[in-house]
Amino acid sequence: LKLSGLGMPRKWKVCWRESVREMIERRVHSVSISPKEENTSWLPVHLNDLTAKVSHDLLQIKHYVINYYPEEYVTDFHRAISSHLQANLLNKTVDFVELYVLLDWVINTYCSE
To answer: Which residues are CB-neighbours of 3 under 8 A, at least 6 positions away?
Structure first.
């Protein structure tokens, strides 16, 4: 993000929004993924870590900055998680049990939080 050339205040909101998106992307993509070969429970562990990080961030927003953090920005978390799942999990998730774990997490954990 370039801070030089911010110009008029109307550009500040756009700059802030881009910064928030980038921060969310970094936060979601920073959740480590154990190599499948090293840990047979790599997927449940990763999904648990992802849930913890996103829940923590969203609770912080809810409790401290909800008046300043428009609800539309919460959709940035959904986009980041979708991107993360597509880029990092779907190409690694190959057997039935892993697909079940992923779908179970999406339906019962992610959608409920």
So the answer is: 15
